[in-house]
Amino acid sequence: MKIIVDAFGGDNAPDEILKGCRMAKDALGMDILLTGAESAIRSAAARLSLDIADMEILDCPDVLTMEDDPMSVRREKKNSSLAVCCMALRDGKGDAFVSAGNSGAVVVGATLFVKRLKGVLRVCFAPVLPKSTGFFLLADSGANNECTPQMLAQFGLMGSVYVEKVMGVKSPRVGLLNVGAEEHKGGPLQQAAFRLLSEDQRIRFVGNVEARDVPDDAAEVIVTDGFTGNVFIKTYEGVALVLMDKIKGIFKKNLKNQLAAAMVLGDMKQFKKDFDYNSYGGAPILGCSKPVFKVHGSAKAGTMFSALSLTAKYVSAGIIDEIAEAVGKGEGE
Amino acid sequence: MKIIVDAFGGDNAPDEILKGCRMAKDALGMDILLTGAESAIRSAAARLSLDIADMEILDCPDVLTMEDDPMSVRREKKNSSLAVCCMALRDGKGDAFVSAGNSGAVVVGATLFVKRLKGVLRVCFAPVLPKSTGFFLLADSGANNECTPQMLAQFGLMGSVYVEKVMGVKSPRVGLLNVGAEEHKGGPLQQAAFRLLSEDQRIRFVGNVEARDVPDDAAEVIVTDGFTGNVFIKTYEGVALVLMDKIKGIFKKNLKNQLAAAMVLGDMKQFKKDFDYNSYGGAPILGCSKPVFKVHGSAKAGTMFSALSLTAKYVSAGIIDEIAEAVGKGEGE
Lengths: 333, 333
Hints:
homodimer, alpha/beta, Isopropylmalate Dehydrogenase, 7-stranded mixed beta sheet, 5-stranded mixed beta sheet, 10 helices, globular
């Protein structure tokens, strides 16, 4: 198995990307093809005393930044590490690609170069996030502002296959994010999606789910349109950050509180780890003809390692074939 | 000033409602007209040793529950404490009404009986929530699943007037909840609402606001459609609950942690209070011809007191006239 890695994606590229690749290759043994300016990659590796002699490099001069227009991946930034990464996957130079770069550009690149599976209406961005116990997958979290009921039904199906085969949850619960539990809740989009999801015998649909129950333990797959999903995930992140920050402030306030903090340090660290946004590595782009995985922009080596390990499972679990078949069947073929 | 209070709205009615009314009448001196079964009100007051001799009662037999269809307020539950509350305000028997009952039914009752102000396209549900410092008002948080850009522009204007006149923030910042900060972000609804809000010289529009920045300090008025707003508020609530619960678990885990908890108890209590969903009492229904205030369903006496105090300001600040004039002007009259 060979995974193509965008060496210049994310806030900590290339150093943390290279370190994560080294960890993954040592632990999991997959081949790695890096894209980016070869000289910069080699000098970073030398500086970090990282041996990358067993990784290939596809030399390309440009970097597509977080500020670039996502569409630039096929125009002015078509020689960027991200665009070259996409094209390398398209051309069969590897089995999957991983990038911590510009999310919008990863989605555009995945759609335009790697292409959607036949029958898939839209690819979706499906991050895995912690909940009170375990995790859930959110599909879509922002690739598609406007969705049809059919798209939502596909997100549910693809998310279910991914969570079962890659994340190892047998028969995961699929819920539709809505403003109430009853079938008639929400607008026409949610009402029609509810019907389609209910009728799909291949998934375990548990009905509408209210946002307040998602962080607790409502379902393993949460289906929503990309606009709502994006607001959901950013609210989730924002509230957690503000609350954690307030607690940090309390623990630093005075000597007495600092002492108390020292006493619960281990448990607080574990709690922070359990609720770490980064702990699940990032988001698969579901619906592509080949596995594409978007790592958090802030990823460090450990997160890159998790992402590469999930991507390896994504490849070996054969879920692309399964999704292709499921979506095909879904269309009555 | 006379405030009409639904004595049978909410999880803790009538006891906590009556206690809150007593507190408000003692501290603020407004007249209070209670709606509900008089015998039940009088026996609850006797049991609680509460003197309610200086409050009027509009006797009505029914209760509209949290499970009832909101539309039942004008049909099978038109003799409920909530419906009678709405009709009493319509008929000029008081200056405002307050209920901790079924939110949907409060909105329906406010719209059908109290009516919208001329020129107001839709009333909106506008809870006030804590952020890292101070608070923000969210309009709409669930009265309208589907909105037009014009409705969103009105929510911004009405929210701004309320926050300035009732909550006392001079020239509050108004932000549009969106998936990115740039003007072109979001779908057609957000793009058109952005233009309308930008052009409105009566408000201080600060542009698009991402959900992750709202709990920090993005703006004092957050404008959104009711579907997104409802997902936002419930995510906010859910994440806060799960995190607080986890921290509670840590502090109870063993003797050492319990000791640590005792050392930061005062600060944690203050923090919990600062972030208490209930601390701002609830939500005004903006756009009605008379002040309507929805209290949290879980309200206890203290929250009822806050709600009655805010409602008194809502009445005396004359913002209904101001909104009427503003919305009228907005239409070019």
